[in-house]
Amino acid sequence: MGESELNNVDMSGFETKLNLLRDLLQKKKAFLMQILSITENQESILVAEFEIAKSDVTAVDGMFSQMNDEKQKLIDELIHSDRFFDKVFKEISPEFEMRAPSYKPIIFIIQDLIRQVTDLDVKVRVQEQKNKLAIRKVDSRTDPRLLKGKADFTKASKDYMIKQYESKKK
Prior knowledge:
By secondary structure, the protein is mostly helical. The chain has four helices and no strands. Helix 1 (about 5-50) runs parallel beside helix 3, helix 2 (about 55-100) runs parallel beside helix 4 (about 145-170) and helix 3 (about 105-140) runs antiparallel to helix 4 (about 145-170).
């Protein structure tokens, strides 16, 4: 294989990794959209909880627990995806500046996805804070049996924040 053929293979590997970064960001965006949706649904339950009869406490607790389990799975997937993204980016970063001009279209897509993911991340954090405030409000006026599901929710929210911070540090 000649030098130009080696460069083409190398470039192809670089392009493959750029495509992988794009795909990982799209996946992260989808996870965050699902997390945001679940978190917004939890807020709806909290708001409606004032109207729920005491006989429905078990159903509300079950919904919260189920939502928290689903959200925790998504958070775990998100963290795994973040770590993989970081690993791939570290692999290509030494060559990035040199090769970036040849890959402007996909780099623009990646940059746009990073902006979208960042915006979604902020929305999730804001919604988590709104929900925590709603939980405090509901907890002060409701049956103690509801606290378990909301405690799980608070733990999932806290875990999300901690894992996001840890993934950014690595």
